[in-house]
């Protein structure tokens, strides 16, 4: 399908994306980003709604023709990762970069908003543009939903850039496309001792290694093999002394494996989390009890799967 004049917007989209890439901001701190978006939407002739859901930016376009109400959504926040690229548009913010493509998502939606604004007589229904903060914190979507701006919406369309799809191609699927996630922190408590006398203590680091391996047996043996699920341990913390076995070790929680920290459980069906979490907890503590160690599990439900 060919859309007249569409390619004339591409240089602007590239420019916006590189500007955003140079100035990344973490979740709920997207002040410069949201200001840039608001300024551009205003130039497109669109009134802007702000001061809700943290740094979110929102705009509704009424075509005054009958039709559905559709929300087009992009996320804005970056990650706490150092940008290691050597390109002119690399991140100028130390320790922060757009490693998950949200700069591209935002730039693309700006291009779409620009095009629709210029050709609004060719569209029908109501079109809403949502620039969501704090996707990486798993907080932005909740804040937006709680604000009420999505009330009366028929469809929400989002996008995510992926490396295994060729440029110019778009993938869609039936059913869930993104997993729902729960974060968890597991703390194992043993008895400290000298590394040369391990028999006098109870080593939580050895136990942690066994527990991490055991997690994957939950996936392969306790869950329906036709239902996708993932348990990932993304960080392990223990002692720093070379010759001492610590009395406590643990997994420090967050959601994103590529952020280099945390533990996450993902499910891809609406009841997967409700079913697999009790199985996970039961299996885990039966195993820990057999090893006569104490442990504590802090589980934080985060987001549901996206269809």
Model description:
With 307 residues, the protein is α+β, with helices and mostly antiparallel strands. The chain contains six helices and eleven strands. Strands 5, 7, 9, 10 and 11 form a five-stranded antiparallel sheet that branches. Strands 1-3-2-4 form a four-stranded mixed sheet, sandwiched between helices. The longest helix is centred in the last third of the chain and has 19 residues, at 272-290. The two termini are 25 Å apart.
Q: Strand pairing plus helix content: what structural class?
A: alpha+beta
Mean pLDDT: 80
The level of helicity is 25-40%
Report the radius of gyration as a whole number of Å: 23 Å
Q: Which percent range describes the beta-strand content?
A: 15-25%
Order of helices and strands: HHEEHEHEEEHEEEEHE
Shape: elongated
The N- to C-terminal Cα distance equals 25 Å
Number of contiguous helices = 6
Main sheet overview: 5 strands, antiparallel
Concise description?
With 307 residues, the chain is an alpha+beta fold. It has six helices and eleven strands.
List keywords for this structure.
307 residues, four-stranded mixed β-sheet, 11 strands, 29% helix, elongated
């Amino acid at each position: 399908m060919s859309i007249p004049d569409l390619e004339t917007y591409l240089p602007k989209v590239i420019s916006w994306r590189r500007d955003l890439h140079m100035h990344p901001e973490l979740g709920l701190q997207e002040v410069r980003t949201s200001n840039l978006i608001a300024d551009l939407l205003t130039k497109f002739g669109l009134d802007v709604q702000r001061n809700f859901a943290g740094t979110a930016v929102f705009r509704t376009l009424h075509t005054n023709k009958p039709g559905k109400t559709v929300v087009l959504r992009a996320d804005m926040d970056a990650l706490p990762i150092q940008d290691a690229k050597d390109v002119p548009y690399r991140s100028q913010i130390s320790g922060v970069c757009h490693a998950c493509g949200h700069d591209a998502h935002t730039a693309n939606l700006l291009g779409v908003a620009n095009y629709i604004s210029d050709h609004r007589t060719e569209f029908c229904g109501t079109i809403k543009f949502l620039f969501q903060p704090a996707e990486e914190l798993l907080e932005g979507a909740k804040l937006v939903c709680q604000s009420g701006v999505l009330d009366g919406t028929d469809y929400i369309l989002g996008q995510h850039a992926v490396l295994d799809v060729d440029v110019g191609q778009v993938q869609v699927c039936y059913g869930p496309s993104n997993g729902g996630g729960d974060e968890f922190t597991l703390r194992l408590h043993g008895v400290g001792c000298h590394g040369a006398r391990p028999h006098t203590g109870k080593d939580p680091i050895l136990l942690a290694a066994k527990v991490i391996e055991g997690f994957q047996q939950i996936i392969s043996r306790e869950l329906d093999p036709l239902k996708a699920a993932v348990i990932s341990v993304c960080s392990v913390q223990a002692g720093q002394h070379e010759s001492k076995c610590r009395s406590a070790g643990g997994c420090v929680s967050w959601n994103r494996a590529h952020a280099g920290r945390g533990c996450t459980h993902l499910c891809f069906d609406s009841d997967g989390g409700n079913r697999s979490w009790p199985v996970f907890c039961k299996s885990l503590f039966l195993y820990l009890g057999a090893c006569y160690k104490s442990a504590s599990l802090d589980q934080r439900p985060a987001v549901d799967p996206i269809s």
